[in-house]
Design brief:
Length: about 180
């Protein structure tokens, strides 16, 4: 099942969404109040569903889509002016006020899309990515989330799978050692 992350500036709306989803059989992975916290969580979970209850301070839905849209399905639940400011077609919208059934229907649809479209990583792919992250951490002094994000960003910018990008990093390091 997809990891569901809920973010938004209102603690009440985050808690309300979490209760609705949990009571309907959708486990909620995390609740996030700030852009920094949200980005850390998205970096650590790789894929899933992000539900934005309105706006997240210092971060737009479009920015989140640009950074994570390849791996995370995004549902923006907000008032019409916020929805109208959203430019990306890949972000799913629900206008407030909305019903619980509409929210649950949207989450079910995104869960099905998640199951159908996300490629499954093999154990070898995961191992390759972890090795590349360790290399970047050692060489560049990055934290694990920063190394992950660097590989992820490069892969997205070049239309590659993360595992392929990680393989290239390891191959370059091996050539440097042998040179």
């Amino acid at each position: 099942m997809a990891r569901i992350v809920i973010a938004g500036s209102s603690e009440q709306s985050r808690a309300q969404l979490a209760r609705l989803l949990s009571s309907s059989g959708y486990p909620v992975y995390r609740l996030c109040a700030s852009a920094g916290e949200l980005r850390r969580v998205l970096n650590e979970c790789d894929d899933g569903i992000l539900i934005l209850g309105g706006q997240v301070p210092e971060c737009s839905a479009d920015e989140l889509y640009w950074d994570y849209g390849e791996h995370v399905r995004i549902l923006l639940i907000a008032r019409p002016p916020v929805l109208e400011s959203c430019e990306e077609d890949g972000i799913f919208h629900l206008a407030l006020p909305t019903s619980q059934q509409a929210v649950l229907g949207a989450v079910e649809m995104l869960s099905q899309l998640h199951r159908m479209n996300l490629p499954k990583r093999t154990g070898n792919d995961r191992q390759t990515i972890e090795e590349a992250k360790r290399l970047l951490m050692r060489r560049s002094g990055l934290t694990e989330p920063q190394a992950h994000r660097q590989i992820q960003q490069y892969a997205m910018n070049h239309g590659m799978k993360m595992a392929d990008c990680a393989s290239q990093i390891l191959e370059r390091a091996e050539k440097e050692r042998n040179a």
